[in-house]
Amino acid sequence: MIEQRAVMTKPATQQPLLCVRDLKVAFPSESGRVDAVRGVSFDLHRGKTLGIVGESGSGKSVTSMAVMGLLPDYAAVTGSVTLGGENLLDLDDRRMSKVRGRRIGMIFQDPLSSLTPIFSIGSQIVEALQIHQDISSAAAWKRAVELLDLVGIPNPDRRAKGFPHEFSGGMRQRAVIAMAIANDPDLIIADEPTTALDVTVQAQILDVLRTAQRETGAAVIMITHDLGVVAGSADDVMVMYAGRAVERAGVDELFSRPRMPYTIGLMGAIPRLDDRDREALTPVQGTPPLLVDLPDACPFAARCPAVQDACREAEPDLLAIAGGGDVGGSEHSAACRRAAEIDDAAIGGEPIYPVPAERENRAAAVPREDRPKVLELSDVTKTFPLTKGGLLKRQVGTVFAVNGIDLDIREGETLGLVGESGCGKTTTLLEIMGLTPPERGAISVCGKDTAGLKREQDISAVRRDIQMVFQDPMGSLDPRMTVFDILAEPLRAVGERDRKTLSDKIADLMELVGLDPEHRDRFPAAFSGGQRQRIGIARALATKPRLLVLDEPVSALDVSVQAGVINLLNDLKAELGLSYLFVAHDLSVVCHISDRVAVMYLGRIVEIGDTDSVFDNPRHPYTKALLSAIPLPDPVAERTRERVLLKGDLPSPTDDRPGCRFVSRCPLHLTLSEPQQQKCRGVTPQLTGREDQDHLDACHFADLTASADN
User: Fold this and answer.
1) Is 701 a member of any domain?
2) Is the dihedral of CA 651, 653, 655, 658 positive or negative?
3) Mean pLDDT of the 494-520 span
4) Domain boundary among 614, 640, 662
5) Cα(498)–Cα(504) distance, integer angstroms
6) Cα 331 from Cα 247, distance rounded (Å)
7) β-bridge mates for residue 38, sequence order
8) Cα separation of 354 and 107, whole Å?
9) Is residue 172 in a domain?
10) Is the pLDDT of residue 254 over 90?
11) Percent of the chain whose pLDDT exceeds 70
12) Does an H or E element contain 433, and which?
């Protein structure tokens, strides 16, 4: 049996750049003192990256804000944060202002909130330079342009004069990175720098961060909930729970041999792009504890499947594991009494998190072509006028948001609709949910053409068959209504009035989605994010629909909660024979839950087919780029896989000239002969089947891509 021993400081060839010791942060509240960070310690060397992961409320961001000195005055901060031999906690705000931006650069989650909207991007970088350096305005402007070029912004001399609202989300984040590295800082703190970005932009931002680290030689703290991002960018990983570190190791060691049940649970809750078995995920049950008056016990005990009585008697220390650790890397330590017993996510050969049993989907046993269509779109188009002028507006163009798409969904089937922001996914959903005749083409719901729904009764009848689950569960629930009233509203809308019947049906709905019916009189604010999303799903199921439209239903949830919602959706599909139109930007989730996938780009579907065909054999260069951008929670695979980074600007959505819309960013286009390139630029490719007529792509030269891969 492998033994644990007290953490010892390993001899190092150089002093750490950043040394955090016993950092504690507390906030006052009406309920008592909130211990947000409870004794965090770590070292970070120059040129290295530390990944900090954990659920919301674990203390990740508060730790980084304490290092930066950005916590409010009422926060009680103790311990030490030493940067290059100087304790930052001893500095007042005036002296700390000389450290921020000069020795420490910060990249926040929302780039738009980090930039002043009334100043140009270039002038804001110039300001960051001149505050900390004795440099002329001309030299500072030249340096700002160089920085924008370094982070990959095209035409940097021109774009430096642009304002934040004129930049896309990815370009704004690049500008923030340029500002963070402007003064060659010793330390860069990136707090969820890719959370709100498309996967292709995320890959570009991570590449820019690596470039910035190479140029400055800085150490990086990467705070994220995405273990795939950590696997590909971190040297060491610290897992936080309830305000403290519960496991710490080198990235290879942590992912290959996690020793803390919480870490194992996080890894099992992640849908993986390289997993084709699609077994049920293993969610971490329960919710994190409130950080007020915590008992002297393991804070994870209430959620831990390997808990023992001793775990509830005292909180375990973070101890090093004898024999654990990477060669030349960080020592492997865990705050778990049973860490020495854990091997390959199991104790004594029994998995800590058994894979939940999956329900059989009876509809899937019937061949797809024999199942009825619950949704069909034929040549659906939606445009918006582009106007100019104030009082007297005139149309100067047309935005082609959805430009002639065809798809269908069969009974008991999930279709994943994926693509970058602005590709037309949400507009497609709105056209479907509107139940009105489309601008061009036809939409049929459960065999009924929306163009033929003339009366309100007809629309109400179809509305019962199609319901929607929204991205933000709190934003889609009325905070002034109890769960009972929220679930009763759609039932009353379809004619149910009897109080006893309503009560019975609401209890059944809550049990169906894994909620306690005794909580029906509570308000949404009393529930966690995952529970609120379950309430939204229960409301959608109230009318017994045949099709659910799910718009990013898990993107706002922690990975542990996300796994439970994904399992619930799969169980409901199997039990009730539901069909899903599932919109998401996370292709790992789409791969896990979908039977078929449709890839959209600038209003058109460029590839569609069953999930395994599209993910194992992508034909369109855009699909290849999307798949290569998804990070894998496997450090070895992340370091060896080939990336396709898209370059170039998106074409204008007002341009409907013939030709491939992807040509300006297509890596395949650059390898073609001149006649082939002319065909790409002048002839619009149509969805075409090749060997497999169910797998269609809209690329003239997809066969060349396939042959190159083989």
Assistant:
1) no
2) positive
3) 91
4) 614
5) 10
6) 10
7) 24
8) 38
9) no
10) yes
11) 95
12) helix 425-434
What residues form DSSP beta bridges with 77? 25
Tell me: the pLDDT tens digits for 286-300? 888 889 989 999 999
- One-character DSSP codes across 284-302: --S-PPPSBS--SS-TTGG
683, 686, 689, 690: CA torsion to nearest 10: 10
Both tokens of 630, joined, read: 């998804």
In this structure, the strands spanning 319-325 and 579-583 are unpaired
Cα separation, 90 vs 575, in Å, equals 60
For position 609, which CATH number holds? Answer: 3.40.50.300
Amino acid at 323: G
Q: Which residue has the tokens 């046993």?
A: 365
- pLDDT tens digits, residue range 73-82? 999 999 999 9
Confidence band of 237 (pLDDT split at 50, 70, 90): very high
Map residue 534 onto helix, strand or coil.
helix
Domain boundary among 614, 649, 675: 614
Any idea what the Cα angle at residue 300 is, between residues 296 and 301, rounded to 5°?
75
100 secondary structure, DSSP code:
B
CA 654 to chain centre: 29
Please say whether the beta carbons of 619 and 709 come within 8 A. no
pLDDT reported for residue 709: 58
Angle (nearest 5°) at CA 559 between 297 and 634: 100
Q: Which residue from 647, 681, 684 is spatially nearest to 665, judged by alpha carbons?
A: 647
- Among 630, 617, 710, 703, CA closest to 668: 703
Residue at token pair 């706002």: 556
Question: Token pair of 290, please?
Answer: 């409130």
Per-residue model confidence as pLDDT tens digits over 309-331: 999 999 999 999 876 655 445 78
Report how far apart the first and last C-alpha atoms of the chain are (Å, whole number).
46
Within 598-700, residue ranges assigned H as helices are 611-616, 621-629, 635-640, 674-682
pLDDT > 90: percent of the chain: 53
Domain housing 391: 369-465+545-614
Around 244, how many Cα atoms within 13 Å sit in the side-chain half-sphere?
A: 21
Pair type for strands 696-697 and 448-449: unpaired
- pLDDT winner (highest mean) among 277-281, 441-445, 627-631: 441-445
Side-chain-facing half-sphere of 104: CA atoms under 13 Å: 25
Select from 107, 110, 106, 109 the least CA-distant residue to 97: 106
Q: Which residue has the tokens 């030299």?
A: 139
Indicate whether 309 and 343 sit together in one domain. Answer: yes
What is the rounded average pLDDT of the residues 572-599?
91
Pair 336, 241 in one domain: yes
Q: What is the DSSP letter of 350?
A: E
pLDDT digits (tens, 9 = 90+) for 587-622: 889 999 999 999 999 999 999 999 999 999 999 999
